Fold these 2 entries.
Entry 1:
Amino acid sequence: MWGMIATWRMAVEGITRGAEMLKESGDAGDAIEAAIRQVEDFPYYKSVGYGGLPNEEMEVEMDAAYMDGSTLDIGAVAAIRDFANPVSIARRLSREKVNSMLVAEGAEKFAHKEGFERKNMLTDRAKAHYRKRVKEMAAQAAAEELKPYSGHDTVGMACLDGMGKMAAATSTSGLFMKKKGRVGDSPISGSGFYADSRKGAASATGLGEDLMKGCISYEAVRLMGEGIHPQEACETAVNRLDRELRERRGEAGDISIIAMNPKGEWGAATNIEGFSFAVVTEELEPTVYLVTREEKGRCTYEKASEEWMEHYMKTRMAPIEE
Ligand code: ASP
């Protein structure tokens, strides 16, 4: 059995590409890297790679990670600028025994030395989003509804290949209007991602500052390691963290997670409305599902309709009214 599951609708073209490789006995690491690169390269996804939304200083600073579930190798970059495919740099770093997580200039220096493709990741479209948000923030300055950080989303994936190897990877430009140097959960092992070929792989998206409080990806993998189905593992991990945060802090940020186990069974859970994910297995063509959170944090999902898919693309590509 092979398969891939990923956060958000934006991942479906990527996992389709990954599935082509897995079908041909491809390696989980190669497939997940190719799949994430596809999302990084598409300019209309405004929270990952090229076209990603900038920080407060109008710079696109990206976080990415890669984990090999068989060797437990981890590589990650954080706050890296001006490189086309952060996930590939993260994967390259995962082969280093030390210095396998690099940030900012250190990461850029390494990527340059290794010959990774340089690219100005700030598109005109992302600049327009920035200018629009600055105006909105000024207009709302007095209102309590000020939300400089809305407009994020990470592509996070879990992958199983036909040889039983699992991998996890992430890529994001992080929170829109974040402070320069801010690092989210996505490059942090156990929070944004985790993979263990014996137990399963998982990845998270949402408010990094809160996801890190529960090491949520590790928690989902740990639960799968106890024989719990990925769906239940995801729901338990999300609901426990959501409850703890509400009890102790009075509120919880967005928490969403996807997971797959070594049998190719999968699951997804969220504490928000509007979470979507994409999945493909040997038995299931690439499919986008929309998640509904029911009572007691049970999560159900239904296949996204044609209309929904069309509307999604239209809104992603619509001109930005500033
Ligand atoms: N988790 C990401 C971050 O905090 C953003 C997201 O997934 O929406 O950087």
Entry 2:
Amino acid sequence: MNIHAFVHSRIRTSMQAGLVVVLCCFLAVVASCGRNVTVKNINIIPEPVSIEQRAGVYTLGSDANISFRGVGQNSFPVKYLMNSLRQGHIQPSLATSSEKSDIELILNDTVDSRLGDEGYVLDISAAGIRLSANTEQGLFYAYQTLVQILPSDIIEDSYSSISLPMCTIVDYPRYAWRGAHLDVCRHFFSVKFIKKYLDLMANYKLNRFHWHLTDDHGWRLPSEKYPLLNEIGSWRVDRDDQPWGKANPPKPGEEATYGGFYTKQEIADIIKYAAARGIEVIPEVELPGHCSAILAAYPHLSCDGGPYDIPLGPYWPPRAILCAGNDSTLLFINDILDEVMELFPSQYIHIGGDEAFKDNWKACPKCRHRMKEKHIHDVEHLQGWLMRQAADHLRDKGRIPIGWDESVDCGGLGFPAVIMAWRGLQQGYNAARAGYQVIFCPTEYCYLDYYQANPRFEPAAIGGLITLAKAYAFDPAPLGTNHRVAECIIGGQCNLWTEYINTPEHAEYMLLPRMLATSECMWSATQNKSWNHFRKKIEYQKTRLASKGYNFCEGSFTPLFRTAVVDDNTVNLTIETEVPNTYIFYTLDSTTPTQNSSVYIGPFNIKRGSRIKILPVFKDVPRDTVYEYIIK
Ligand code: ACM
Ligand code: ZN
């Protein structure tokens, strides 16, 4: 296979994380028939701790070579690099020990205390490109940064040489937990897509994949001890052609054909793929609520004996709950957690604990008996007791349980344990004060299933509105946060619930670009963040992501409208887009706006029922879409 065929087949077959792109660069360089390019600006997401850019460039030419110091052939950055090459039948040009190398990877033999476990230094000077770190993970992130310095069209174009700006980047993360969550229960996603998701995470230095594997709408873990979970609990009647909120009920005898579960081999494959990108996979098993799929398969684990169905659309309130008074439930939980621990080597296992409606417990003689036996006075604390049984089982095997923030209100998970704060920042602070380590993913900033732009111009979503600027405003510990609380915060993540998301393309659309905001909010110190700079960098990343085939939402340019009543017939209209340097041109006579139309300069009065047509123009370039709105 020749170099170009290799490069293009890589793009066609699957997106590969950064190192391949680096290699594509070398290969394109080797191709030597293309043009020369000089990179002028450095636009890295997440923003590094420090970038010192100097005058001058280092040019990678057709004789580019690589060397390694301190990292063995089996270390993960090197293996990653070598495997990528071998897959493409390419032998890298390795420098001999006496040769000067263009690119050098160095695992520090003396620890650089600034960098910790994930930091790195990337130095581009007259001597070449030098990547150094204390760990392999740090080296991997140095690569990811180097990839972002390369031209964004590197995998589409070929260059005979690439000149990179001389600079020194010193970088390390603000938080250890930089996560992204994916719900594969409401809609099922293939291994191929999950790998693409992991690639994306790795490109932006996210390191925890929270895999939401069980819920009312489907059970996605393989189980040998409870085979009906897969025969019954993993499948529902197919209503994928209907909107989530409007699914027709099942017909009598209709076969359940939508869904599936991951096999043991697929899970092992995903864990390995993630690990090769510095990502830990954290499985979630929902307890004790959100369990219709369990009860459809094993109704004896419920308070009332069932029967239970797997719901086809919205399921609220989610009344299905495992019976806390039934010893079979305790056995079931331990058995499932044992199976999970066999499959997943992660330090953390998530055991849910959110939105458990306990009406069934109140009415259940077995649950009431359990409360009496254990001197528990209300059903909330019965949930706490049940969750602690599961948490203790995990701790006994050396794992750390994670629970959603309701777990704190229920009497806690015991220690050590981590609380995931989703209902709001305050719930996270309460958990910290109760002594837990905390991961933040509040709905206000981190729920990427929410609308990201004016809902009237967007595909149906679950509700809410988290624009890119809003997602970027996420900070679990703003300056001035009590230091004892701040010390308990191990990080945060974005969550992608998939009720309204049933294709990989739509998932990408909801993730991008907001996932990049999560990345910068979790990696970069508050004082290194700047919305205007971040928004500029998004334009560069957009090109990069498009070249890798990702779907991307341009919602930052979509106008948002606010109206204030002036009188019965008139409102005062405010129009906003959140991108600096965007002008809004509009018409009120139904003609298509151009750059000769009226330009919006501030709120104005307008009659209800008027039709306004809007053209955003960014840096003198009209956007593709004209937005039409009838004033209410
Ligand atoms: C949640 O969104 N119910 C954790
Ligand atoms: Zn019960």
